[in-house]
């Protein structure tokens, strides 16, 4: 889930008559500056972007409380501020110059243009390097967090520290990199690290749950599609390490409205991503028709709590736990058979046999190596899928 980026700015004061023109400017962090020009007739109000980049756009919702002022504006008043030039709002005229007056302005700001129209001809790059293959662990209309305004969001299951690359060209609009904690708790909803990039059509790309200090671009940078921008993490409201990606724009309530997008993948130049499917950048040498690649059948080491720590292991000790892990390119009801034996031992091979579940990101079976010297030796794991032998793995067990 992304961080809500609206900001409240309240300015209120009372005054009497002005003998001469007085110009003040109040800025709210990196977002919006309020310019007030006061004279004996009243207050002229303008708004500008704090960021001087000519491509930066913010949507602003303005409210005002006025005593002894008159205006033709109806509040709330909506305005889109583009680039560094101030946008004139209005002049609030004093009704009775013999009396004191009061005004208070409140603002809500969200990056982007609520009037923007997404360029549907754009095909996005996958937001990670060409060497990475990643599974969509939560897709569009996902049951965990991808519903309502966030329905068209995608979560890629990648480890902490995985390079994140820009999916589309644009300007860095906002970043956050100070947080370190992640978990499935409501108090962490606003504590995800992120990068928001504004596209040429006024929409925004959001890359969220980055690692602490995992942002390598700065505000106002122009980035190209495919450029390294940061590193994935597990910060904010999350059930585990992943990269959250979405394209959105604000609506008139300053809420995020996500937009469906297509990507360049191994299958197509305009691919709609599906939950539990694995994706990678188009490249030769990988069979796109197979349900599982040989490299995605692995032996993984487990903690005592049966948490996966690392895969590709070839050496274990008595008493340790391991996982036979299979990550399918696309989900299905494949039948999986695993035979486990020890070379030179007369034991009957252990047989595992099950049918893959369509709603799982990966398939696997946990096993414990008994703390018994007779299990020392070279172990052999034979894996078949739908009756076809896919891979034979070996690892050594030592005392």
From TrEMBL:
Signal peptide: 1-19
Domain M23ase beta-sheet core stretches: 151-253
A Pfam family the protein falls into: Peptidase_M23
Entry keyword Cell membrane: no
Keywords, alphabetical: Signal
Domain of life according to the entry: Bacteria
Keyword Signal in annotation: yes
Molecular function per GO: metalloendopeptidase activity
InterPro entries in the record: Cell_wall_metabolism_enzyme, Dup_hybrid_motif, M23ase_b-sheet_dom
Name of the protein in question: Peptidase, M23 family
